[in-house]
Please model this.
Amino acid sequence: MTSDQVVETFGSATEENQIDPLRDQQIVTLPAEGEVWIAGDMHDHRRNFDKLLKAADLPNNPQRHLILQELIHGEHFDETGAEESWQTLLRAAELKADYSGQVHFLLANHDLAQIQGKGIMKGSISVCEAFNKGVKKAFGSSGGMVQVAITEFLLSFPLGIRLPNGIFCCHSIPQDDQVPTFDFSVFNRPLIGADYMRKTGPVYQLIWGRHVTPDGVKQFADQVGANIFVTGHQPQEMGYGVNGDQHLIIASDHNQGVVLQLNLAESYEVPALVRRLKKFVAMDV
Ligand SMILES: [Mn+2]
Model:
């Protein structure tokens, strides 16, 4: 693909995110029919991503929705330190462009760091700089143009996806002490620069939250009007973690990683959700 084609693909996917008929401001609401497959953090795990797309088989399953998050910043480094997760992000953008009604994204903290060009280190390396180096390596003098298209694409991701059965998907939940002062209007209005600010911005607080307790989850759920949250963000060695009776955490970036496969017409409590988890290692595709 040429840089022009790549920019065009990211541009189409950006537009599809923005004009999504299921979207109202920063929330996408899925219909009460069909299925949804929810993936956790992917971090450029290409084997799992391949399996996911193959198994989901979107062209032959038009009733199936797919939720993706935190696709970038993985382990594919070359000898010069260029990191190449833009390739997986591009595949996801192609998928959105081709199956716009079925593919949905959630904004994650690694996306925000990449938008801002800083904020996450891996040892002494900035993963954002390594990502940009990968783009530059592939597109040379057009790298800057591609980088802008990627930034626009990441900025077009919604913050939350509401399922008709009371489940709310987002990348993370604000830490407990931020919930009482959290600006819940962030879901229902256009975003401004201050929303993304480190520590104080509600977007930042939402997607960087860690160590949230079941009490914090309950407070947040009451305000959002949800029963159960399905999030990513916190690493899960066994692929998932149960945080009280209103919060399931999933991860998709290793062999024990999982995807959550739900029927949109059914209701679930957390134990039932756990039974609907499918491990990538057990996916025979
Ligand atoms: Mn994260």
